Amino acid sequence: MTNIDAEETAVHPNLQVRDIGHVRVLRIDREDKLGAFSSSLVSAIGAEVSRVRQTPSVRVVILTGTGRGFVAGADIEEYSNASAEEFAEYQRRSRAVFDDLSRLPQATIAAVNGYAFGGGFEIALCCDFIFAADSAKFGLPEIKLGLIPGGGGPQRLVREVGARWTKELVMSGRTVTADELYARGIATRVVARDELQTAAVEFASELAAQPRQALREAKQVIDSGRSQDLETALSADQLALARLFSTSDGAEGIRAFVEKRPPEFDQE
Ligand code: COA
User: Are 173 and 138 a contacting pair, CB within 8 Å?
Assistant: First the structure.
């Protein structure tokens, strides 16, 4: 049985890490500030994303928060003390971390427990799946500060839901419920707050049990296909399929079906 309560390690005062089998859970732990992204917290997440990339035994990553906040955006107090150069450096660094997360070969799930504003919503959009607590709130409220979002939210959202709804969120800064995000196809699942962790871990474990290379190839072709023309993307699907056919997991999956038994995929 999966040990959902595996011990956590603090890799930063506001970031806890634990492994549940092949699933790595990164928990943002800054409850008093609703998970707001200080620059050091963003860097710590970046370091963990790099570590995950180099750890093939980690097959799925869950990013979650604590209490009422997932991440209520960039740390506005830090903004208030920043020079223009420091502000630009923060934006550059957080973009690098967000991009790196979005390009992880492993599957990623944002388990959004509470407020996901600004950078919090944007980092969730970098994950393959968004599981939201029914009480979670989302928004890109930067316009209310006289700013616009810098963590990729507008450009990632527009590719998923089109310009009109993206403009509504970015230009009004309004708050959106988990149900509305689900209706728009952005949230993968909405569950009761106290069931969020279990739901995310169960789905992550389901993904982690899939053959590793097929899981990675599936993510890769879907993500890269979005910026390719259809012909190129269809060819990439077929090349990936041909590669998978020649793997030991591909052979095992087919053989197991024919022999009417469950497949035994490589579990390293
Ligand atoms: N940066 C820094 N601190 C933040 C923060 C942020 N983005 N979001 C919340 N906090 C802090 C508050 O200052 C407060 O700290 P304090 O107790 O030391 O005063 C604490 O977190 C709790 O927030 P509070 O505003 O009291 O909670 P609330 O339930 O009344 O409101 C929000 C919650 C999320 C609606 C509100 O905090 C908010 O609007 N936050 C800013 C969101 C935002 O603009 N994000 C984009 C940033 S670019």
Answer: no
DSSP character at residue 94? H
Instruction: Name the pairing type of β-strands 107-112 and 129-133.
Output: parallel
User: Rounded to the nearest whole angstrom, what is the distance from the C-alpha of residue 31 to the centroid of ligand 1?
Assistant: 11
For residue 33, how far is its CA from the centre of ligand 1 (angstroms)? Answer: 6
Q: How far apart are CA 186 and CA 52, in angstroms?
A: 24
The Cα–Cα gap between 64 and 135 comes to 14
Tens digits of per-residue pLDDT, 173-211?
999 999 999 999 999 999 999 999 999 999 999 999 999
Mean pLDDT of 58-62: 98
Which stretches of the chain are DSSP H helices? 39-53, 76-80, 84-102, 119-125, 153-161, 163-172, 178-183, 196-208, 212-225, 230-245, 248-258
With a Cβ cut-off of 6 Å, ligand 1 is lined by 33-34, 36, 72-77, 115, 117-118, 141-142
Q: Which of 135, 134, 136 is nearest to 124 (CA)?
A: 136
pLDDT of residue 43 exceeding 60, the answer is yes
pTM over 0.85: yes
The CA-based diameter of the chain, rounded to the nearest angstrom, is: 66
Cβ distance 152 to 95 under 8 Å?
yes
Cβ atoms of 124 and 132 within 8 Å: the answer is: no
